[in-house]
């Protein structure tokens, strides 16, 4: 009986480490934030500080220069490569979220809008 209690305590302790082991902060929910294309409204106060303040599957994300609970989106592995170009054309989005992109490509912000790109290496 004592060994079962010890096993249960050990499993609970390991479970509490899972978010940190997966690269997320404690209380941070899986998934990502949707793109923020809203104009900046600085007079609106933040509605949340972190994901734990949001109901069920919602995440605390930047929306129009303030934090708000919004539905999370799925995010593929890897990070978007940095784009140091300056756009002379009108902004045009060729994707909205990672799920719009084939294979391992991610929907990344570029100088002229969002486009499907291979994740950065490293």
What does this structure look like?
- This protein has 122 residues and is an alpha+beta fold.
- The protein has 1 helix and 4 strands; from the N terminus they run αββββ.
Question: Helices, strands, pairings?
Answer:
Layout: H1 2-21, E1 58-63, E2 66-71, E3 106-110, E4 113-117
| Quaternary status | single chain
| pLDDT < 50 stretches | 1-22
Distance between the termini: 47 Å
Percent helix, as a range, is: 10-25%
Sheet with most strands: 2 strands, antiparallel
Count of discrete alpha- or pi-helical segments spanning 4 or more residues: 1
User: What's the number of extended β-strand segments?
Assistant: 4
What letter string, H or E per element, gives the SSE order?
Answer: HEEEE
Whole-number radius of gyration? 19 Å
Overall pLDDT score: 78
Strand content: 15-25%
Structural class: alpha+beta
State the shape.
Answer: globular
Strand order of the largest sheet: 1-2
Summarize the structure in short:
With 122 residues, the chain is α+β, with helices and mostly antiparallel strands. The chain is 16% helix and 18% strand.
Could you list some keywords that capture this structure?
single chain; 122 residues; alpha+beta; two-stranded antiparallel sheet; two-stranded antiparallel ribbon; 1 helix; globular
């Amino acid at each position: 009986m004592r060994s079962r209690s010890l096993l249960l305590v050990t499993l609970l302790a390991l479970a509490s480490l899972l978010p940190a082991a997966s690269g997320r902060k404690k209380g941070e929910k899986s998934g990502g934030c949707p793109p923020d294309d809203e104009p900046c409204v600085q007079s609106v106060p933040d509605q949340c500080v972190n994901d734990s303040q949001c109901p069920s599957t919602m995440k605390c994300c930047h929306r129009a220069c303030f934090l708000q609970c919004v539905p999370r989106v799925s995010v593929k592995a890897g990070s978007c490569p940095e784009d140091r170009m300056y756009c002379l054309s009108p902004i045009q989005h060729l994707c909205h979220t990672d799920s719009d992109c084939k294979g391992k490509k991610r929907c990344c912000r570029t100088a002229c809008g969002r486009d499907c790109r291979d994740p950065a290496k490293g």
